[in-house]
């Protein structure tokens, strides 16, 4: 109940949560004691369960019923070179977080995490604060504050990324965390994984009059399905193979509430547009992992309605932002997994484009234009990851960024931006 109270407090922006969230939180809290109280009958010949308090697998265990795992992440970034800006500061914090994960009676998992600095797009220092109740393998219920089920790379922890930053489109298009309730599980002999949730806000904005079809459920509806025909196969050339699709739908209130396109150093290459109406995100993802080679990628699209946003108070064509990335990783030293030393070489190409639904009329750069002149950003990232210990990793990235104006209507520099940076990471 304490976790639920914290989630309610940090998730409400000056307003009480929707009634549905209070009811669902009460439901989760009511179900948890019953599922955790299911008796465990010892089988004949089975060794006795461990007792007492002990340290095992980076966690504190109380018998075989309670596991508490402390979480600490410290990332220190060292800029090495930039071909357009002088390197004045040779040290920066990439991320600093503390938290705790845990499990109770093999039925309830929980996580509480807080950032010691602003290292993401969230509007609060609290990151993940949730409880997850497992009814069975096919049905789990999660309530609290956590990441929406959208984008494979967004749902990958920062300390496990192949590069220092997520792809440009992932950072701009994919939502981060919100307060909500989600059901998820694995079906069809664990081949299909699903996640469906309702969330309180619309990209951090409180929407009072929500005209969408799900207003009785919540402000945002999100869902993701992943199909894994091959999982953990150590005998064949393909160890893992998975495909996924995701959808997020919500309403965005009128105002400059569009997303922002940012370069690696945080500079904006396009600013917020005035939007009003439905926001729809679509995502497709794929991953193939061999013995020493991994290939993965995503395609993302976000469509924003612009109702009554012209200078004459008429509807404008939808604002459309698309992006994709393709990543290749080669393990040149070490075995799979994170327990031993390993060295990976990685390369990624990602592109994000800005445009509108109307592409036939004369294009303009004015944010109130019906046909917005297209703009794209192409990024090549080359990296190396050295896992010295399961807690310690050194990363290095060389990033090449270039803006592309297909119609030549903007005054853009033709010289790409080259950046070299190194990161030291400790993650428990």
Description:
The protein is globular, with a radius of gyration of 23 Å. It has a 16-stranded antiparallel beta barrel with strand order 3-4-5-6-7-8-9-10-11-14-15-16-17-18-19-20. A two-stranded antiparallel sheet has the order 12-13. Strand 12 (261-262) and strand 13 form a beta hairpin. It has a single domain (2-37, 55-427), classed as Porin (Beta Barrel). It is built from 3 helices and 20 strands. The protein has helices spanning 2-11, 19-36, 168-173, and strands at 53-56, 59-62, 66-82, 92-104, 108-115, 126-136, 139-147, 177-187, 192-199, 220-230, 240-255, 261-262, 268-270, 275-289, 293-306, 316-333, 342-356, 375-389, 392-404, 417-427. It is mainly beta and 428 residues long.
The domain count comes to 1
Indicate the percent of residues in helices.
under 10%
- Share of residues in strands: over 45%
Quaternary state, please?
Answer: single chain
Low-pLDDT segments, ≥5 res: 1-21, 24-29, 31-43
What is the structural class? Answer: mainly beta
CATH fold type: Porin
CATH class: Mainly Beta
The average pLDDT value, as a whole number, equals 85
The spatial strand order of the largest sheet comes to: 3-4-5-6-7-8-9-10-11-14-15-16-17-18-19-20
> Rg, please?
23 Å
């Amino acid at each position: 109940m304490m976790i639920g109270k914290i989630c309610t407090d940090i998730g409400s922006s000056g307003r009480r949560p929707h009634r549905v969230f209070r009811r669902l939180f009460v439901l989760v809290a009511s179900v948890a004691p019953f599922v955790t109280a299911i008796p465990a009958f010892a089988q004949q010949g089975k060794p006795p369960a461990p007792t007492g308090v002990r340290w095992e697998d980076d966690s504190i265990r109380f018998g075989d019923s309670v596991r508490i795992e402390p979480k600490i992440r410290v990332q220190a970034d060292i800029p090495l070179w930039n071909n357009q800006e002088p390197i004045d500061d040779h040290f920066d914090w990439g991320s600093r977080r503390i938290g705790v994960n845990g499990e109770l009676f093999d039925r309830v998992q929980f996580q509480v995490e807080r950032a010691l600095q602003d290292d993401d797009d969230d509007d609060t220092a609290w990151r993940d604060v949730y409880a997850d109740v497992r009814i069975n393998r096919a049905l789990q219920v999660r309530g609290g504050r956590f990441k929406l089920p959208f984008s494979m790379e967004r749902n990958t922890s920062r300390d496990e990324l192949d590069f220092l930053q997520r792809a440009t489109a992932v950072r701009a298009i994919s939502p981060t965390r919100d307060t909500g309730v989600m059901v998820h599980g694995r079906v069809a002999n664990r081949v299909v994984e699903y996640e469906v949730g309702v969330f309180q806000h619309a990209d951090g904005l409180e929407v009072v009059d929500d005209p969408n079809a799900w207003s009785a459920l919540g402000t945002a509806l999100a869902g993701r399905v992943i199909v894994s025909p091959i999982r953990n196969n150590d005998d064949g050339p393909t160890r893992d193979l998975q495909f996924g699709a995701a959808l997020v739908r919500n309403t965005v209130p009128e105002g400059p509430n569009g997303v922002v396109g940012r370069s690696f150093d945080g500079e904006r290459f396009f600013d917020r547009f005035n939007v009003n109406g439905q926001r729809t995100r679509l995502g497709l993802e794929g991953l193939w992992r061999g013995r020493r080679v991994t290939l993965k990628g995503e395609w993302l699209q976000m469509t924003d309605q612009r109702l009554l946003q012209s200078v004459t108070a008429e509807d404008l064509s939808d604002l459309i932002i698309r992006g994709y990335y393709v990543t290749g990783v080669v393990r040149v030293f070490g075995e799979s997994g994170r327990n031993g030393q390993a060295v990976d070489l990685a390369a990624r190409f990602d592109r994000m484009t800005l445009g509108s639904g109307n592409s036939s009329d004369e294009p303009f750069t004015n944010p109130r234009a019906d046909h917005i002149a297209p703009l794209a950003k192409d990024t090549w990232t080359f990296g190396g990851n050295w896992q010295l210990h399961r807690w310690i990793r050194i990363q290095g990235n060389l990033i090449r960024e270039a803006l592309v104006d297909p119609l030549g209507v903007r005054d853009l520099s033709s010289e790409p931006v080259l950046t070299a940076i190194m990161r030291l990471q400790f993650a428990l």
